[in-house]
Structure formats: structure tokens, C-alpha cells
Amino acid sequence: MNLLIVGSVAYDSVKTPFGERVRVMGGSASFSSLAASYFTKVSVLAVVGEDFRPEDRAILEDRGIDCSALKTVPGGKTFHWKGEYGYDLNEAKTLQTDLNVLGTFDPEVPESLQEVPYVFLANLDPKAQMKVLDQLRGPRVVAADTMNYWIGQRRDDLMDLLPRIHILIINEAEARQLTGEFNLVKAGHKILSWGPKMLIIKRGEYGVLKITQDSIFAAPAYPLESVFDPTGAGDTFAGGFVGYLAEAGNLNPETVRRAIVMGSVMASFDVEDFSLGRLLTLTRQEIDGRFKAFKELTEFSGTV
Ligand code: AMP
């Protein structure tokens, strides 16, 4: 089923212990839509500036992503994020956030997308995320992400958004920041009491926790020998997760578990190269192969 992704399309300047890239394409919508495009038909709603290179738009279009709602602001500059990772690749240090055209982004959902069944509100100003929901006619599933920047700057808006979404996907530091609880299970239940039916907590190289009112599911991250750039891993996870759910068309507990593993598979590919690199060359065969390896990694039998 069709999936609408709203988020940032960015130029990122990133430094990791293994190298540096300046003004390469990134953004929450870019990573998540590329990951989701391996599973379902994706439309992107986002904004860029006049400096956005046609070859970067082509990166999305070449994966079959509908970019008719990727708008260019005349005279504007594309959102720019500058970050750095130390040897602890789980934590990005944000050095600079230039909102540029994102600062005044007023998302307009085209008529043709207003009845879309699956929506992923990737990391973006929660006010803009809500504006998108205001224009949709009864989506079946709404998932949303956020980050420390918005929890700090737009907390009230974020609290207004929570009762309007089904699934919140955030990382562990964000779950703690949002709730003031260190314990993730406690933090999870607090967040669920604010509205979402399901919470997905991303824990970097430690994997993912899914928390609902009456269940918890944990998946590890795929153990990799070479990790170059974790930028976008969270967005890639979310894109793979929601894309798989949209392809399946249901939220059965078993489907959700497989979607979590598929998201983790996609994130494990993302970190193997800088920027969007690895997400452009994947084949479904490679994806399915790692899904199988994931299954073997966590399978055991017998009783106590
Ligand atoms: P992550 O999946 O958490 O590694 O997300 C990294 C991506 O988030 C980068 O490509 C950035 O362009 C994007 N990003 C960073 N800060 C923001 C922000 N405040 N709003 C939207 N996107 C952001």
C-alpha cells in the first residue's frame, strides 16, 4: 500500500573516525524513503532550496520514489546539518543546524495524496508534522519520529502530536529526554500513556525495543565488522519498518516483529557506507539474505 513520507531532505556535513564528507545528501525523508522504496510505493513531501542539485533529486526518482511533492523554495537554501561521531558511533554530536527552508516549511499535501493509507512523519518540526495530519483523510497507520532538537525546542507541539499517531519511533536518549525517566520500560509506558499505541525505541548497536501496553519485543542490531557512518541509521530503520508494514497491509504482532527485523536489516546496510551510498545499490536478494541471517542469529530451541 502507498506510503507518504514527510521529513527533511538535507545536505549533511559529517565526520566519523573513518572519514569526512561535506554537504552530501541526507535528511530524514531521504534515508527513510530510500529504505521504504524496497518494499512499497513511496511519495515524499519535503522542501529544498535552489542549491539542491538535480542529480540528488534523481537519486530518489531513480528508486521509483514519487517526488511531485518535493518542492523547491525560490531563492532558498537547503536544510544543512553538521554532525560528528566519536568511536562511540551510537551518539551523534550536532555541531550545526541550519534550518534554512525548513524553518518556514508549511507542508501542503496534494489532493492526490490526501487519502494515502500509510504515513511516516519523519524527523521534522512537530507543528509541520501536525499540519500534514490535518490534511489527510483517515490514514490507517501513522508513525512518527522526532529528535532531541524538537523535544527541546517544541515540546508542547510534540505533546499535541502524540495522541494523533499510532507508532512513535525514537532513540533511547530521546525517550529519556522526553520522559525524564532513565529506565526505558518506565519511559515507554509513560509515552504510551500520552497517546501512541506502540513505541519503538532505537538503541543503536544494541538493537530495538518495541513496547505496547501489554507486550515487549526486543531485536538485536546485526553484528557488523565494518561500520563507517551511522548517519541516517535511525531513519533507515524507520523507513524499512514502515515500508514493510505498508507492503504487508496489517499490524498483526508477527508482521510487526518481521517489520522490526526488516528495519534493522536496512539500518545495518546504511551504516556500511557514507551518506546514502549503500541504500542505492541494494538488491532485494541481499536484503532477504540478511533477513535470513538475522533469523539464524537469534534463533534457539529447547526449554529450560
Ligand atoms: P539519524 O537517523 O538520527 O542518524 O538522522 C540523521 C539525519 O537527520 C541527517 O541526515 C540530518 O540531515 C537529519 N536531521 C538532523 N537534524 C534534524 C532536524 N532538526 N530536523 C530534521 N532532520 C534533521
Low-confidence stretches: none
Counted beta strands: 13
Give the overall average pLDDT: 96
Could you say which overall geometry the principal axes of the C-alpha atoms support? globular
Estimate percent helicity.
25-40%
Please indicate the percent range of residues in DSSP E strands (runs of 2 or more): 25-35%
Number of domains: 1
What's the level 1 CATH class?
Alpha Beta
Q: Termini, distance in Å?
A: 42 Å
CATH architecture descriptor name: 3-Layer(aba) Sandwich
Q: What is the H-and-E element order?
A: EEEHEHEEEEHEHHEHHEEEHHH
What does this structure look like?
The protein has a single domain, classed as Ribokinase (UDP-N-acetylmuramoyl-L-alanine:D-glutamate ligase, 3-Layer(aba) Sandwich). It contains 10 helices and 13 strands. The protein is α/β, with parallel strands linked by helices. Helices cover about 35% and strands about 25% of the residues. It binds adenosine monophosphate (AMP). The site of adenosine monophosphate has 17 residues, from strand 2 and helix 8.
